[in-house]
Amino acid sequence: MNLKYLLLAAACLGTGAVQAKDSIYKKGWIDLNKNGVKDVYEDPEAPIEARVQDLLNQMTLEEKSCQMATLYGFGRVLKDSLPTEGWKNEIWKDGIANIDEQLNGVGSARRRTPEMIYPFSNHAEAINKTQRWFIEETRLGIPVDFSNEGIHGLNHTKATPLPAPISIGSTWNRDLVHQAGDIAGKEAKALGYNNVYAPILDVARDPRWGRVLETYGEDPYLVGELGVQMVKGIQQNGVASTLKHFAVYSIPKGGRDAAVRTDPHVAPRELHEIHLYPFKKVIQKAHPKGVMSSYNDWDGVPVTASYYFLTELLRQEYGFRGYVVSDSEAVEFVQTKHHVADSYEEAVRQVVEAGLNVRTNFTHPKDYILPVRQLVKEGKLSMKSVDRMVADVLRVKFELGLFDSPYVKDPKAADKIVGADKHRDFVLDMQKQSLVLLKNENNLLPLDKNQTKKVLIAGPLAKETNYMISRYGPQGLDNITVYDGIKDYLGNQTEVVYAKGCEIKDANWPDSEIVPTALTDEEKKSIAEATSAAADCDVIIAVLGEDESCTGESKSRTGLDLPGRQQQLLEALHATGKPVVLILINGQPLTINWADRNIPSILEAWFPGQLGGEAIAQTLFGEYNPGGRLSVTFPKSIGQIEFNFPFKPGSQDGQYFAGPNGSGNTRVNGALYPFGHGLSYTTFAYSNLAIKQETPYSQSPVTVTVDVTNTGKRTGDDVVQLYIRDKVSSVIAYESVLRGFERISLQPGETKTVTFVLLPEDLQILDRHMEWTVEPGEFEVRIGASSTDIKLKDTFVVK
């Protein structure tokens, strides 16, 4: 049905009621409980804590419990796209904490009510209609928090897309990430969303894990720094940011996802120094209003049922003041997977007392609300615990201004604010800045457009787009494939031919990773067609890797080689004698050892977004000089895992080949590409490292400066990286830790001075008593182009 008629029908259902309710809108305040008196919670001038307490005092158990659950939007759990008379018989007649993904284009709503999703102004009007029902038709008029995903850009049809978070991490650009958050926050606000589920702060320590592509990388400092900027960007628009996934979620046993979500094998010191580090930093520096609790355990206790995680750490130590939502089934898993509760009701009791504010799952909210009510009535759950959880939810809603300005003020403005077309330059810029040049032997890249007469684009990912579309990002966009991007860039002056060569996976994959099978006749024919097409080409561009069916949520891998017959295709293309450029499309590090030894140029593109093909084309032909850096280590073999940064001394060393403990040569060692690695079409030189201490004591800042010069002939970006080594400590410290980075752009011959300021927190370790402290001693500063390519070193002493 057309939106116009749906809105008219909804209005007609309650015409008299709506007109009668008009009187609740007073000058400067809203009479939410319709009693004709400005109660404290209705007074915009009253302190927020007083407003929270006043509202809590007026709420019944029924109303409080409704503020403890999520209602998934239309097409998922909610059966109606707009309010109906039947809502008076639903559990949310007493309110609801939040409505998630309402009319965002994910799920069946995109097919059933497309006119409420796009144009954007229609969506804002539909959100207003829903919000109006809760303001006017519930007893206390508590507004709804409309939430939505946002790790790839706001999860709404035709909104502004971002590349995969692993691509965002590869930019090493704080300002760019802040701008991305700002765009997502502006679009959310214009559409009526109040809460964006982003960023993901999980630290990717195992490259087999399918959600590596949804993280910023493997290093806690880098993840934390970019996370701070994403949160600040989102929240500066009056929209909440909700961090995911708290905590120690990213290292399931053996890198396996989905069914295996227990037993992460993380020691207490590693828990705090690696996995909790980004959460602590982002909460204390950016003050996000939301956190999503994860459904795994740590040390035998489910995180969502852990008072230690949700109250002692999150609230008491880190100072979190927002509200916690559960990841899907986190509450249910307390009983069904972790078996630390003998009934679902007992699981509910545990999570509330631990500190979970809102249960979020793809089932009806009454599944959680009714057990909460029953537990209170039976005396098994105190009203004090319920009040504590509800107060946090209400506080966030007050802080967001929902009680005073609950509606999108100007729905028509959404059409001018929201959309990929409004931010095309930014989308393309972020995509280009995320590209990492892994190898460029004999400067094969950039290719000369004028000297290239014929190009073969080969590989099963050259014309694929599915990896550009995330369930957690914008839908309904026109995506530019690698093939189309290159063909459009070259125009008519260069002949472009295409050969798929093979499928992304073979018929037996992933079993074929452990038991190889012979090529079929069809596969041999397809590879032969590709090599034949290369006969009179100047260069071959091979586009290989993974698509969305190979990696992602619940898609962890057994191996990290190129899937299917792609390796055979690459070897056959190389055997033609033509120069080969390898474009990697992938969501996690791949063990491309043969390619590294044989293919002259390799460009890491990760899972690019809408304009990926255009960005890649501009980079291949030198219009753009790649400057991204790896935010994860590429291991040579899964037999090395874990092989990552940071690491403890000796944990990634080679073998003794001689001497009393000589062992011979039994294993491959070293990174294929280390953390922080990335090449450029120009070169950079580092000089004049200087360290200045205001005082030699631990609480004084330390200023580090270094000069960087572009010594090549092209403008380019460098990422200057600062690592710290604590030379002697009371406990074993990491070999070195990242404690500073700056992405800078330099013209040929230009020199810039890069300044880093090290604060006490940058020198801290967890001592033997598990206390964060700066221990006296000598610290080494390492300035480099990667974690292994260290250009300059110096030391300073702390007393």
UniProtKB/TrEMBL annotation:
Gene3D superfamilies: Glycoside hydrolase family 3 C-terminal domain, Glycoside hydrolase, family 3, N-terminal domain, Immunoglobulins
Keyword Metal-binding: no
Residues covered by the Fibronectin type III-like domain: 718-787
GO MF term list: beta-glucosidase activity
Leader sequence residues: 1-20
EC number: 3.2.1.21
Pfam families: Fn3-like, Glyco_hydro_3, Glyco_hydro_3_C
Keywords annotated in UniProt: Glycosidase, Hydrolase, Signal
Keyword match Ion transport: no
Record family assignment: Belongs to the glycosyl hydrolase 3 family.
Entry protein name: Beta-glucosidase
Biological source species: Parabacteroides faecis
